From TrEMBL:
Name recorded for this polypeptide: 2-aminoethylphosphonate--pyruvate transaminase
Organism: Lysinibacillus xylanilyticus
Span of domain Aminotransferase class V: 37-321
Gene Ontology MF terms: 2-aminoethylphosphonate-pyruvate transaminase activity
Taxonomic lineage of the native organism: Bacteria, Bacillati, Bacillota, Bacilli, Bacillales
Pfam families, A to Z: Aminotran_5
Amino acid sequence: MNNYKLLTPGPLTTTETVKQEMLKDRCTWDDDYKNVTQSIRKQLLELAQVKESDYTAVLMQGSGSFVVESVLTTVVGEGDKILIITNGAYGERIGEMAKVLKLQHTVYSVPYNEQPSPLEVKALLENDSTITHVAVVHCETTTGTLNPIAEIGSAVKELNKTFIVDAMSSFGGVPMDVSALGIDYLISSANKCIQGVPGFGFVIARIEELEKCKGRARSVALDLYNQWEVMKLDGKWRFTSPTHVVAAFAKALEELAEEGGIHARSERYANNNHILRSRLKALGFNAYISEELQSPIITTFLFPYEGFSFEHFYSAMKKAGFVIYPGKLTDVDTFRIGNIGDIHEDDMTTLCKVIENYMVVMNNEG
Ligand SMILES: *Cc1c(COP(=O)(O)O)cnc(C)c1O
């Protein structure tokens, strides 16, 4: 297999040093390992800018979706009802989970190229007092849209509802003051902006809220409350923990701090994204969403001309050392390029040069 850089928003390109951490086997119940877990939990709270007296970090085995499902099954109780906001496939996945878990729910859905309206959220909450929880995706990775969670959060808090945010592809890459945003449960995973490898996710939970959730989950393995109860004592995971992945994640957190924290990382990502968007635009690749909605994480591009073959483009990029992402839209032909991970300005300029050359060849042939 050739080496290539992943321009996919998780799993993403990680550093050699993060990968090297996985060469050792670690014992799940030994203090050394449990201390690694405790230190990760503490650092996550710092990144979320929250106090240890108000919030707790709970790690959960599985990919990001497992952790979203874990929150839903643990916090939305029998008599509760959740409002799910969607403008992309990840929001819709929350809706799918609510359906399968048989949660009482209602969906506020807007087109993929628009942001949900905080005023509309407020109106929906005012018109249905049975709603107890609200869930929204921060960066909709389907399109790259950054949703207005601050404004939505203030509507949710004004009406005293529990606020759940899927910040999977943004946490660590975009500064977030979790308590100021009114977030009760923030969900993210190891293999996104913190630049670890896949295998677990985490929840930054308001303690006062999580404390109410004992016995609510309709799942044993995904019971976030029980996971917290065990983990908070001394860092022990219930069931087998992904030891290699956890060790790699601890290293990734160290490297995030060395880079200068979330602010520095978000600037690198924004710069990557700016180079990508502007240079591709000059080549005739238009982004699916307008610049004001664009996150610094991933960009969805429309096919540049009729007859454009994604498969052909994909293999040319792969040959040049970059793996890109297919689109996830049903009505228009798109593809996606992520710019998070251990990806720097020189990677972006190399990629843009490769695409420029591709277009020259295609123009000559076409
Ligand atoms: C990556 C991602 C997820 C989780 O996807 P998994 O494939 O389960 O890791 C959920 N929500 C968003 C917004 C994501 O970007």
